[in-house]
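ok trying this again, last paste got cut off
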Amino acid sequence: MTSEFSALLKRLRREANLTQEALAERAGVGVRTIRGLETGERADPRVTTVRLLADALGLRPEERERLLSTAVLRTPGGEVPDAESPAEPPVPPAAASAPEPTASGPTRSPLHEVLADVADQVAQTVAARWRREEEQRQVHDPYPLPVRWRPVAEELTDHWANIRRLPPGSAPAPLELGGQLDAIVNVYRRIPSGRLVVLGRSGSGKTILAVRFALDHLKARGHADAVPVIFSIGAWDPTAITLRDWLAAQLRRDHPGLAAPGPGGTNLAEGLVETGRILPVLDGFDEIADGLRRPALEALNATTLPLLLTSRPAEYAAAVAETDVLTSAAAVELTDLTLDDLAAYLPRTTRKARGRSATGWEPVLHALRERPRSQAGANLAAVLTTPLMVTLARAVHSDAPDGDPAALLDTRHFGTPEELEDHLLDNFVTTAYRPRPGSGPLRAWDPERARHWLGYLAQHLNRLDTPDLEWWRLGYGMRRTTRTLVTALVIGLTIALVDGVVGTLFDSVAYQLLDGLVAGLLTGLLFGIAYWFMVAAKDAAVEPSVVRMRIRGGERRTGRNPLRRLMIGALCGLVFGVGYGFVRGVLNGAIAHAPLPFVLAGSIGDGVLYGLMFALAAGPALGLLTLFETPLDIRSALNPISLLRTNGRTVATQLLVWSPVFGVLVGFGSLAVVYPAAAVLGPVAWNLTAALKLGLISGLGGALGYAFSLTSWGQWTVFSRIWLPLTGRLPWSVVAFLEDAYRRGVLRQAGAVYQFRHARLQHHLARGPRAPLRTSDPDGSPRGGPLK
């Protein structure tokens, strides 16, 4: 019997003038699948299949949503099938401002209702986040620096007919796109395609513009409008993941609650991206790794998503030369600050000199006006043309009590614009970490030590080729073998300590010292092997958990299958137990000087016994955890530290549940395994005391080994709290240092990650320590040209 979905699919196919065979070829699915869906014989279409069909049919946003909605509602009770990861479907820009259904219009589907409400919550979170970031960066103190733009060269923009979405044969005039910071949303709305490229050299204000665009757009947003979300696109690898999948993954990272199951069999993040409720603001196209910008631009052109993209001009132009412009996108370029801008801004950032109205910036402004062709004037004219350098100059020479702006005219130390920029970048960190009496929450860090630690963080990001400082990947700048060895070493020492201390309740101290060393060596080795194959060999990171543990209450669950987790746990326990038992049998046989045949027989027997013990314990214990998992709240984890603490609480709760359950199952399970096995293998030295000891040590040691190797919080502990501070690359109180650097304006927060205030500062610090340059009297020899 045909359903609403079947009838709608058939109608849409006929309207597109396609046969079933043609649609199947376009969508990449079987003809039998199309035939079964249209006749109703197949009543369980996967959401991935529906997306492929929608792509092949070229549906409008409202048609696409209706097709998805009817697929979701196809079964009694609204049951939703499991779905694969979403494909890469183009969503026309109209989805960014789809009209709200009226009372007389079509009934709003559950899919629409749920995702619209989720989008509203994301909008509130994003607005609060970026308002705080503007305050933290003192954008409005005393007022935002001017950010203006002009149209770019024609070869960097698409045809105006494409931008204006006009029919063939039209001869459209260019749009007027000039403007300044407070008009960015109005300018964007003049573009029918909803696609805008903002070009600007380093420090010209692209990120400030992106933040202002998001906040102003959110201020005027309607309930049905898309939510502008800023994504640092430099972290995207277009050869490894599609744009839509990457956007959804970033949303889940910054809003872990969006990993919860949503209508349609996907999670909420995928649903928001798929239905056009996210307006991507892609900041930093130039930060994409070399060699990936061309495929990135090609991937962007494969969609019609509305978006705003920022980039430095040279990198964007190079990508365009290799492939094509961003399809249907208008483009503008940010212009330099003028002398009038500096004269209006800089004097208002410093205190007045006692007894007169002039400020310390007057000599600098005078030199720029009266001696623009002098060497000092030319250097300053070349440097103080971007908001980045002006704000650095303010920080170093206005905000610091002993800062003297006239020092910027010292050409004996700053003979070139590059040396002047290095001076500002060098002294920015020194100034940021200067002692501040009564500074409240700011800690007193030694500036040189702080610079050393920041330099390591910058080098770490350069090695990973990303602007995102993710706390769960702080150790991932090291080689994979080093990470594996460090993880195995920490686990081995921890379990040796646990075994040695707990074991003294049952045996002598001398025996437990040896037993602890053996247990630590074996478990460290086996967990290290497991870590290598599950994490390091794939060059992957252990991502933060997107669930919390809820022992009591009626919270909705994550939809994870306990049986699947039980089987995975049993398999891992079996492998670990067999390896542990075999190696332990070999060591015991060697210590007893037993003949080789007896050693091998005993080792195989121990491997079988321990394998069964750990398999029967690890499977049920891991499956039990699934029953207590519930999605995080959508507004959870608004910053890196709250996400870290959330994961810490989740891991702690998991261990409190898993450790005793696993220990009890190992202890009593060993009795259930050993005594029947004795009838086959012969006499086995085992009793209740040995079972209790094994259960207690296994419960504690297994839980800690799992936490350190296979959870993001554990990896943070191993590397950021132990190894990196121990080797002097980071301070012992890493959290306090990162938060302090954020409050000082050296770092910024972008959702769940930190970033350096600017990519230029990151790359500068990564070059290593440089002594801050000192200034003396200015030199006015002629050179260069004036500020406009």
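PB: full thing came through this time. The chain has 28 helices and eleven strands.
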